[in-house]
Amino acid sequence: MTQQQNTPTFLFENQAYELGYKRVVGLDEAGRGPLAGPVVAAACYIKPGVVIKGINDSKQLDPSKRREICDLLIHHPAVMYGIGVVDASVIDRTNILQATMQAMLIAISNLSIQADYLLIDGNCFPKTSLPGLTLVKGDERSFSIAAASIIAKEKRDDIMNEYHKKWPTHGFDFNKGYATREHILAVKTYGITPVHRLTFEPIRSLVKR
User: Fold this and answer.
1) Measuring CA to CA, which residue among 159, 77, 161, 136 is closest to residue 112?
2) Domain tally for the chain?
3) What is the mean pLDDT of residues 191-198?
4) For residue 1, pLDDT beyond 70
5) In-domain check, residue 80
């Protein structure tokens, strides 16, 4: 028996608005697990009462549909978003959790509005004075977080596609920096690139050889 997929709603946003908050923003990230490339966070505000069809956890959407919905979101007059990018060198210098929190803070700062309440995917809250709520699997539960997950994923994919032009041997356009067999073979054959995460295995062990 398959588990039913949750569909994101405005439940948590509406609860915040009922408490008197005016600008509820969802946040999610893409790229915590790859061996290469940045972690990218998106902060997304959707004007109350606006429903955009097709929004779901980015992992549940096929690539063409996800791109279509991302384009709709970033050009929609009732949607405002900010992007935060933290590259591999910072991830190595700190750690992926701290880099993710930093990317979220950058995304919040890049919003054209001042958020007053945050809905964060996961169980860690960035260091900010803003109030908010963490939601495990928030991209399946909150409409704003799901929208942010789509934007973050697409923006990160765009970055990895640009990296592919610089290092075509590593297949970043396909693997997006994740640990596919072909990616690891490329590292063994052609070496690491400046966008690889040196503290992530198996890159760390390969560098030490």
Assistant:
1) 77
2) 1
3) 97
4) no
5) yes
**Rounded Cα distance, 29 and 41, in Å:** 4
In-domain check, residue 128? yes
Residue found by looking up tokens 């396909």 in the block: 174
- Domain range for 18 is 11-165
Dump pLDDT digits (tens) for 111-130.
Answer: 999 999 999 999 999 999 99
Cα distance between residue 30 and residue 23, in whole Å: 23
Residue identified by tokens 């930093």 is 102
What percentage of the chain carries pLDDT values higher than 70? 97
| Position 177, amino acid | G
Rounded distance between C-alpha atoms, residue 42 and residue 155, angstroms: 9
96-116 confidence digits (pLDDT tens): 999 999 999 999 999 999 999
Neighbours of 199 (CB within 10 A): 15
41 forms beta bridges with 29, 84
Alpha-carbon distance of 103 to 105, in angstroms, equals: 5
Alpha-carbon gap, residue 159 to 84, rounded angstroms: 12
In a domain, 70, yes or no: yes
In tens, the pLDDT along 137-176 reads: 999 999 999 999 999 999 999 999 999 999 999 999 999 9
CA dist 145 and 136 (Å) reads: 11
Residue 191's SS3 state is coil
Residue 79 lies in a domain: yes
Domain with 98 in it: what CATH number?
A: 3.30.420.10
